[in-house]
Amino acid sequence: MTAPGRGLPGEPAGERFRRLRDRLDHPNGGGLRRGVRRGGGPGPGLVDGEPLPVPPAAFASYYGRPILKAPVWRHDIPAYLFCGGLAAGTALLAAGGDLTGRVVLRRANRLVALGAVGAGVYFLINDLGRPARFHHMLRMVKPTSPLSIGTWILAGFGPAAGVAAVSELAPVLPRHGIPGLVGRLMPPVGRAAGLVSAAAAPALATYTGVLLANTAVPSWHDAYPHLPAMFAGSALVAGGGAALLTAPTGQADPARRLVVAGAVLERLAEYRVRRMGLTAEPYRRGPGGRLLAAGRLLLAAGTAGALLGRRSRTVSALSGVALLAASVLTRFGVFEAGIASARDPRYTVLPQRQRLANRGRGAGA
Amino acid sequence: MAESWTAAPANPAERAGYVAPPPRMGFFTDTSLCIGCKACEVACKEWNLIPGSGLDLLGMSYDNTGALTANSWRHVAFVEQSRTAGWQAVPPLAGAPTGAAASPTTAEAGGAASPEQGTLPGVAPAPDPAPAARMAGGGTSLGMPGADLPGRGDRGGRGDLRWLMMSDVCKHCTDAACLDVCPTGALFRTEFGTVVVQEDICNGCGYCIPACPYGVIDQRRGDGRAWKCTLCYDRLRAGRIPACAQACPTDSIQYGELDELRERARVRVERLHAEGVTEARLYGHDPGDGVGGDGAFFLLLDEPEVYGLPPDPVVTTRDLPRMWRRAGIAALAVAAATVAAFVGGSR
User: Structure pTM?
Assistant: First the structure.
C-alpha cells in the first residue's frame, strides 16, 4: 500500500493522473498535503560536528528527487570490502604465526588470505561495467583516486599472499631432484612473501574507508575521519574470527587478542560515526541501521565467546563464525547507509544549507 | 594541500599540464531566457548519437526527461510555482478561473515515477513528496513582488503561477571530482578546460558517479560505461560551437570564453535586478566556491535546490589529504595491534 498520490515505479501514468485528479477535487481532504515529514522533523542535530542552532528547516527539491546519483555498485563491493579485510587480517596472523612458530595458525591463515583476496578481486572485476577492461586500472598510479591506489595495494598484496600460500605445498613435494630443491627453497621464499603481504595488509585493511569516503555521498563523506578505523577494526575481527575457526585452541591466543583489539577499534569508530548529526541517520535507521545493529550483536557475542571459550574448540569455532558474520554485516551496513543517504535529497540539501548559513553568520560578524 | 588548491593556476588546462592552452571555454545558461523548447536536448542527442530514452510521461510539468543521465546530457527542468513572476506587467492569469493554484499538489505527484531510460542509477524517484510541494509553492524567503500591480485587487482567491525553465548540463568543474577519482584516466581535462570521458578507456568502475557533487555522470545500461556532456569536444576542436548552444533559439545557452561569459552574466544579473527581478542570482560563477567555479554556470530565478542543484557543492577530494592521514593512523593501529597480539603471547 503506497501513500496517496505516490506512484509505484513503472505504474502507468494514467493511474497517477487519476489519483492526482481525485486529490485536486479534494484539495484539503485526507491529509494529502504533508508539510511535515512522517515521524516529525529530523530534530536538532550536528552538521560538520557543530550543533545546529535550530532544527533544520523544511527544504525544497526538484520534484523531491535526489540531487546526487547513488552509487551503481552492486553487492560485489561490500562483499569485496569484507574479503579485503579478511585477507588483510589473516595475512597478518599468518606472518605472526610464522615468526612465532605457530605452524597451523600460519598455514591456515595463508590459505584463507589467498582465498579471500582471490574472491575479493573476483568481486571487484565482476562489478565493473566492462569487466574485460579491468586491466585499464593499471594504466596509471593516481593518488587522488583511492580506487587506483587500492588496485596497486592489491597488486602488491595478492601475488605475495599467493606465493606464501603455495609455499605450504612444500611438505607434499618429493624430496629428491628438482622438486626436492624447490621444496627446500619454498619455506624461506614463503616466509618472505608472507612478510610482504603482511606489510601491505594494514594498507589493504584501511584504504577502503577512504574509497567510500572520497565521494559526494553524504553519509560516507562526512564519516571520513572514522571509516578507515572502522574498517580496520572490522578487518581484524574478520581475520581473528577466521583464525578461531581454523586454528587449534593452543595456537589461537593471538587471534583472540586481535579480535578484542579489532572490536574496540570498530566500536569506537562506529560510535563516532553514529554521533555525526543529520548524516548519521542512515547508520541508525533503515536497512543500513538494521544491518549495523545486527553486526553489533554478533560482534559482542563473538568477542565474548572468543574470550570465554578459549579451552573449547567448539565455542571458539562458533565465535569465529559470529565474528566473520559481524564483519560482513558491518560492511553491508555501511554500504547501505551510504546508498540511502544519496537517494534522499535532504541529506544533500540540509547540511549544505546549514553550511551556507554558518558562512553567512561568519561573514556578518 | 589546501594552499596548493589556491596557488594553482586559475586555468585548469594549465594545471593539467597543457602549455599555453587556448582560453577556457564554457556555457552561461541564462534561465530567464529559457522558453523550454528542448531544442538543446534534441540537438545534443543528434550530434552525439545518444540512444533514445523511450517515451515517458513523468507528470513533472513538461519535463519528461527527469534528470541528467548517461542518455540525456542536456535536461530542461520545468518548475510550476504558485507565485507570480517578478517582472510581469500583466496579471498572468487574468480571465482564468479562480481557485488555488494546483502546482504544489501536481508537483508532489510528479516525483514518484522511476522510468526506465536505459541508464543507472538514471532518474531515481523521490523518497518523500514534501520537498516537491515546497519547490512548487514558491520560495520561502522571498516576497511576492508585483502583488500590488493594477488589476490585482479583484482576483479573488485565484493563485498566481510562474514557470521556471532551465537547461541543466554537466558543470565542467574547475576542481572536478569525477576526474580526480577516475582510476583509469578515462576522464581527462581537455585543452579548453572541459572534462571529457574517453569511451575507449572507461571500464565502468562507476567511481565517478557518486563522486560528482551535482549528480551528473551516469552509467549506460548494457554498455556499462559512464557518459556525460563533453561540451562537444569534437566540435570545439573544429572551431564550431556546441550543438546545444547552436540550437538554442533564445540565447539562453551562451557559449564562449569563460572570462567573457562571467562578465556578461554579471551585467545581465545587474540589469535584471534593476528591472525588479530581485530573485535573479548567479550559480556556479564564483571561482572561490567549493568546486573552484563551474565551466558551465547559470542564472537562476530561485534557490538552486528548486532546480535540483546542490546549494553548496564541494569537491570531495578537498578532504582527501585528511582522509589519507586518517587511513595512515588506522593502518598504524592495525600493525601495532598485530605486534601486540603476538608479543603478548610470548610472555
Answer: 0.88
